[in-house]
From TrEMBL:
Pfam (any one): Ribosomal_L13
Record field: transmembrane: none
Keyword Ribonucleoprotein included in the entry's annotation: yes
Record protein name field: Ribosomal protein L13
Stored CDD domains: Ribosomal_L13
Entry GO MF terms: mRNA binding; structural constituent of ribosome
Keywords: Ribonucleoprotein, Ribosomal protein
Family from the record: Belongs to the universal ribosomal protein uL13 family.
GO BP terms, alphabetized: negative regulation of translation; translation
Entry's Gene Ontology cellular component terms: mitochondrial large ribosomal subunit
Amino acid sequence: MPTFCPCAVFSMEGFLTSKPLTCHPTGYPGGLKTHTARQVFDKKPEQVLRAAVSGMLPKNTLRKARMRKLRLFPGDEHPFAPSDLVPWEMPPRKLRDKGIGWALPEGFEPMNADAYLKRVKTSRHRAEMEGRAAEWGQDIE
């Protein structure tokens, strides 16, 4: 489920000017064809907005992939049904046991005592930390 609104409605009447939006050569001398935003909008309404968004993206290799994800639908019809937004919760971090333990400052308790004690078992600071583990009611085996 998406966590964003997949559709937006807006009007582009203020953007359609008489300045050339696109131009391409025909191959003949003096054969530079230009099209205004109004002409492009009449044929393909989504192309004007696509060109605007493309111009705002960084000019690098990711631009093509980002533009591929842009979905534009002229008119009121689109294939996306209105859906409820679902909040995304970050999954808990998975800590890998590296066999490394370290001495904690006096009076400091670890956020996850079980994960900390798991690391302490193979630590070179084990003797020093066994006393601290007893303070939390834990026992290092």
